[in-house]
Inverse folding.
């Protein structure tokens, strides 16, 4: 995984609550056995006027001009500003892969669904929880400035804008460490292989019916 | 000793280590695998030349993509076929137990786990599918994971986890006649909302929950995720133990007694503290029907569609309006006046034998209404199908004009050929009424199996309690 570095990026608004993973990446694209190539089908049902299937050339499809990510400058957005319970529904990590593949590095929302939140870190997408009041404020500012940008500093845990606003955010220390250093979870866990084996020995002695 | 919740107990039992960040390494007993969320995980293992930690913890089955029509014809969609073939190949090369598409034990992963006794009380159970919460009905800690975590469990038998908070939802008293697990859980979601359980493991309790069969309890825990909680749980009792007894993967004679002795401790201690408690009066629960595009948009079948104008909060009002626009419904219309195009009885929520019996009891002696283009019954597994056929339920459905299909996820998420066309309205026993879930532009109303059967024979939503059982 790439190291997560400080950056400044365009913010795209997704002004609805409970955006589910079926909306983020519809089921027909889950038939892929790859981790890549989901970006063109991110929010497929909202983004195109015709219905999509895997294998179709997305460049040939009818784009919905009213959908936010089809507009300039949001086509180039790296930060998605969303509402409550973003990423609810299915556990499909394809939703995270699609957002990352599109170019998003950060999603800001007042709350996230647990599985989506967890999945995000695995592909270097940082979910940032900010209060409802701050998110409301960001939506207002975004509405006034089309090319609204935010800077994300994970090291300092600060979201800032060019007007000097600085908002701190919380992030789990372990996940922060992994993101900043681009570390692979599995490699880290395997450093404790002896401890896992010791656990197993005791565990299966105590619960022989599981052995 | 401190009083513990059921979740605390199962959690503690599985902590391998706790690191400096307060994150735990949690040991996983059972890993259920299906074709959609596993190929990239197997690929990751191969790419990094990592062995699989504990083969026997895995039970694999194709379910999302499989056709529900004649199995001997195979899968015609080449993309879906490649995914199922990939699962078969991975299971063969890693030496894993898999119930292939032509195995009569094949079925929806959350149906076959319990059916085989592969889900046991006190286990940690994971699967790359959010409805893994289903297995919590067995006093197991069961939750859905993403593909990276699937790979992590395969390689290490563990997951890096933060402990959730504890919530208890008590259904106080007994529910009325004709009220099912599905109605209970929809009523819970209606009350706490789809984000209500975010960050929590929910324990379901109270007389109405204890009175449920294991099938009913699985339906309730299945939809814990729709209330935002990764895990739903129910304490172990005699109903649990009786269900597990004698199943193929369950402990045999020599270990049975010690297992049962342990399982009997798997309930919340008197005086244990919950971070949040919710109590719902059982007798307030009526047959539920969702009217919108989120499971929290739910009401009694005897209620009216809500009016966005009556909603004070601007955002909520807009979201109700958006949902009604998508669903093609007007505010204040009586729910039981809403006509349907299709009916789907199936999914990991409601495709077990008890669900099929409940639907068949309504279908018996009646016929699917003329306006219903398709009424599908998709059993949860080959063994459920076999049992239903033994009881003659297939004949009741067929005579009533339903289609009787092969097991799989089917129209719950419409990855295979079973789906809604744009604008079609469906009464479905599944778990999600999101936009496009059952097919682009499709309109889903979530209900119990008996309510779905009632909708099929009446053509519109009907309070199932008003229908007589015919012979």
């Amino acid at each position: 995984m790439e190291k997560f570095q400080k950056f400044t990026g365009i913010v795209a608004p997704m002004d609805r609550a409970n955006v589910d993973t079926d909306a983020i990446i519809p089921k027909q694209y889950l038939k892929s056995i790859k981790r890549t190539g989901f970006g063109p089908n991110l929010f497929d049902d909202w983004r195109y006027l015709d219905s999509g299937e895997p294998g179709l050339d997305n460049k040939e499809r009818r784009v919905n001009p009213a959908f936010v990510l089809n507009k300039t400058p949001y086509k180039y957005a790296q930060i998605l500003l969303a509402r409550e319970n973003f990423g609810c529904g299915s556990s499909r990590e394809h939703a995270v892969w699609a957002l990352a593949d599109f170019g998003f590095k950060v999603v800001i929302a007042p709350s996230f669904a647990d599985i989506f939140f967890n999945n995000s870190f695995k592909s270097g997408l940082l979910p940032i929880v900010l209060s409802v009041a701050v998110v409301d404020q960001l939506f207002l500012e975004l509405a006034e400035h089309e090319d609204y940008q935010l800077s994300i500093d994970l090291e300092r845990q600060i979201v800032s804008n060019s007007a000097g606003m600085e908002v701190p955010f919380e992030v789990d220390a372990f996940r922060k460490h992994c993101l900043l250093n681009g570390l692979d979870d599995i490699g880290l866990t395997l450093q404790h292989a002896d401890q896992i084996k010791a656990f197993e020995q005791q565990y299966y002695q105590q619960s022989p019916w599981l052995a | 000793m401190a009083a513990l919740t059921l979740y605390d107990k199962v959690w503690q039992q599985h902590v391998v280590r706790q690191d400096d960040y307060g994150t735990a390494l949690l040991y996983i007993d059972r890993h259920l695998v299906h074709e959609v969320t596993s190929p990239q995980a197997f690929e990751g293992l191969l790419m990094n030349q990592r062995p699989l930690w504990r083969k026997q913890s895995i039970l694999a089955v194709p379910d999302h993509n499989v056709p529900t029509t004649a199995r001997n014809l195979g899968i015609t969609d080449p993309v879906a076929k490649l995914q199922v073939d990939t699962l078969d190949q991975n299971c063969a090369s890693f030496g894993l137990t898999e119930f292939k598409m032509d195995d009569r034990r094949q079925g929806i992963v959350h149906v076959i786990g319990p059916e085989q006794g592969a889900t046991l009380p006190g286990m940690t159970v994971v699967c790359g599918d959010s409805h893994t919460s289903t297995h919590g009905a067995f006093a197991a800690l069961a939750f859905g994971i993403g593909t990276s975590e699937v790979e992590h469990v395969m390689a290490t038998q563990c997951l890096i986890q933060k402990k959730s908070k504890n919530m208890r939802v008590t259904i106080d008293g007994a529910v009325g006649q004709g009220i099912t697990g599905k109605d209970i859980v929809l009523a819970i979601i209606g009350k706490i909302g789809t984000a209500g359980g975010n960050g929590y493991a929910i324990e379901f309790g109270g007389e109405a929950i204890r009175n449920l069969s294991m099938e009913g309890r699985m339906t309730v825990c299945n939809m814990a995720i729709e209330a935002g909680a990764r895990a739903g749980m129910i304490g172990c009792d005699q109903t649990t133990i009786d269900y597990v007894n004698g199943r193929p993967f369950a402990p045999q004679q020599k270990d049975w007694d010690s297992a049962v002795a342990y399982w009997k401790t798997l309930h919340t201690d008197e005086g244990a503290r919950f971070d949040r408690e919710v109590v719902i009066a059982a007798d307030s629960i009526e047959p539920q029907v969702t009217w919108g595009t989120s499971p929290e948009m739910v009401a009694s079948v005897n209620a009216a569609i809500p009016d966005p104008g009556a909603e004070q909060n601007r955002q909520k009002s807009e979201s109700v309006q958006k949902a009604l626009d998508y669903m093609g419904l007007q505010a204040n219309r009586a729910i039981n006046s809403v006509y349907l195009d299709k009916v789907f009885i199936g999914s990991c929520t409601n495709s077990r034998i008890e669900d099929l019996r409940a639907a068949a009891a309504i279908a018996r002696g009646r016929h699917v209404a003329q306006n219903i283009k398709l009424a599908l019954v998709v059993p949860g597994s080959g063994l459920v199908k076999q049992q239903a056929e033994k009881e003659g339920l297939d004949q009741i459905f067929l005579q009533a004009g339903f289609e009787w299909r092969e097991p799989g996820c089917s129209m719950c998420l419409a990855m295979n050929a079973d789906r809604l066309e744009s604008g079609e309205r469906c009464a479905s026993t599944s778990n999600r009424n999101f936009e496009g879930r059952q097919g682009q532009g499709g309109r889903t109303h979530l209900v119990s199996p008996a309510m779905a059967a009632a909708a099929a024979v009446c053509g519109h939503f009907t309070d199932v309690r008003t229908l007589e059982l015919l012979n």
Q: What stands out?
A: Strands of chain A lie at 7-14, 79-82, 106-109, 126-129, 149-153, 158-160, 166-168. The CA atoms of residues 172 and 178 of chain A lie 10 Å apart. Chain A is about 30% helix and 15% strand.
